[in-house]
Write a structure and sequence with these properties.
The chain has 195 residues and is of the alpha/beta class. The chain has 7 helices and 8 strands, in the order αβααββαβαβαβαββ. The protein has a 6-stranded mixed β-sheet, with helices on both faces. A two-stranded antiparallel sheet has the order 7-8. Strand 5, helix 6 and strand 6 form a beta-alpha-beta unit. This is ADP-ribosylation factor. It comes from Babesia gibsoni.
Amino acid sequence: MGGKFSCLKRTPLRVSRSPVFQTRLFGLEGSGKRSIIAFLKHGVVAYNNVYDEANSNMHWITHNKVRMLFWVSVNAVDKDALTESTGVRALIYVVDGSSPESIAQSRDHLAQQLENVNDTPHLLIFLNKCDKPSFAFLEEAHYALGLDNITDRHVRIYSTSAITGEGIREGIEWLCSKFYVNRGSYIPRKGGSRL
């Protein structure tokens, strides 16, 4: 008897949006930004058919139940890119670790770009191409990039390889652990060491 009326009962429509963790990924040309994005999206090496999908500037990636929006800059964090992606919570800088010249260029480039960005408290550096024989040690790259001079944000450097996936997920894990969700947005955690 109650079946007729129970099907007419209106249920309130609740749309619960999960928060989005926005991240800016940038670096010099040839550092492996697109390959890292392709690995995070597909979990495989960036072959030609996968690489074509990674040529856009905006990528949705889910990592351990965290919805992430990656804004990929071609060379720099320019002013137009900053205005299009307000709400960016962290920066990821990709460095070609197999070339000493690239590490030297990246130091100046990183310092120049960090002057333009003041509101992101966390910087993750991927020292990419660790599978190559000419790869630099983390301590050497840390010193060569001048990371001790960055005092206004948390900095972490990981040796990575977009071919094997080594270090990429660990770096994203560290970045996600530095934030918590409060009222539908990601808030940086307070306290702790700079590293």
